[in-house]
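Re: [ENG-882] Designed sequences occasionally contain unexpected residues at chain ends

Forwarding the minimal case from QA. Structure tokens:
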């Protein structure tokens, strides 16, 4: 089975009565079976996203080969997406390796430059049937080593979103509406009204970053107001590391390391299943 781009995978999700796709960050190769187990349990298509740091660590081709193989053997329609990338050469590497979706992140640039670069990425991606996500506005928190401090957060203006989508024709747009990357120190204050207005102005699938720690109620409301891709990353990492700490602490050095990892992977499956159920 070949990989699906985001638009095609969203169609599959809708046929299966999901309103949005969760897009889950894979932090290491060992976690991969847990992702497919969650998709099988929920009869959901699967969107796996990879930070540029993880892609460099594991290798783009290895990720494509492993994920294509599991997608075919488990019969799970799957999209492999490069998360937050500002480096056009790395995006080209991902496309050449066989990623089916990429994100160009020019959110730190003036809007004209962000638009121009996003258009370049779209020109690179279209001939290969690869979907493109872009970002407008500055989402707070920490993601793959990039930190946006509280005072640097910039919510996405509705009119800028309209212009951005019109001038780029991007497949999906990540917007800043109050979520942050990483762990929250308090409750997330999501700007649902701004979201509804951006949905109205763009008519394009919108992406909610920083899904970790967002309440079920906010998540459902965001999906109702136009979010069609929800990114979740930190939550799987936290669960995996917490379980590993326990099992490695209790285990003996000559126990199979596999036995230490199974409970961690089970916890990751539980996170994905819980999130996926919210999108029905
Ligand atoms: P969290 O790590 O906060 O869930 O955010 C993930 C994300 O938005 C990746 O792009």
């Amino acid at each position: 089975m070949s990989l699906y781009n985001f638009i095609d995978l969203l169609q599959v999700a809708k046929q299966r009565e999901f309103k949005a796709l969760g897009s889950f960050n894979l932090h290491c190769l060992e976690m991969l079976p847990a992702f497919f187990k969650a998709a099988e349990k929920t009869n959901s298509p699967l969107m796996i996203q990879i930070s540029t740091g993880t892609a460099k660590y594991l290798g783009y081709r290895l990720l494509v080969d492993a994920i294509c193989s599991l997608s075919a053997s488990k019969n799970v329609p799957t999209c492999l997406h490069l998360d937050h990338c500002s480096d056009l050469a790395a995006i080209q590497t991902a496309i050449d390796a066989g990623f089916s979706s990429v994100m160009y992140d020019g959110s730190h640039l003036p809007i004209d430059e962000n638009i121009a670069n996003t258009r370049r990425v779209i020109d690179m991606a279209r001939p290969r049937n690869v979907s493109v996500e872009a970002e407008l506005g500055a989402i707070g928190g920490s993601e793959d080593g990039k930190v946006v401090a509280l005072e640097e957060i910039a919510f996405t203006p509705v009119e800028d979103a309209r212009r951005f989508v019109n001038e780029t024709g991007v497949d999906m747009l990540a917007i800043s509406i109050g979520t942050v990357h990483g762990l929250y120190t308090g409750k997330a204050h999501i700007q649902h009204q701004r979201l509804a207005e951006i949905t109205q102005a763009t008519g394009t699938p919108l992406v909610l970053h920083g899904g970790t720690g967002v309440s079920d109620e906010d998540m459902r409301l965001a999906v109702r107001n136009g979010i069609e891709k929800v990114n979740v990353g930190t939550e799987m990492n936290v669960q995996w590391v917490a379980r590993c700490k326990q099992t490695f602490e209790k285990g003996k050095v000559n126990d199979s390391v596999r036995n230490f990892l199974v409970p961690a992977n089970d916890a990751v499956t539980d996170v994905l299943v819980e999130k996926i159920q919210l999108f029905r």
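QA comment: On inspection the terminal residues look reasonable. The chain has a mean pLDDT of 95. Proposing we downgrade this to a documentation issue.
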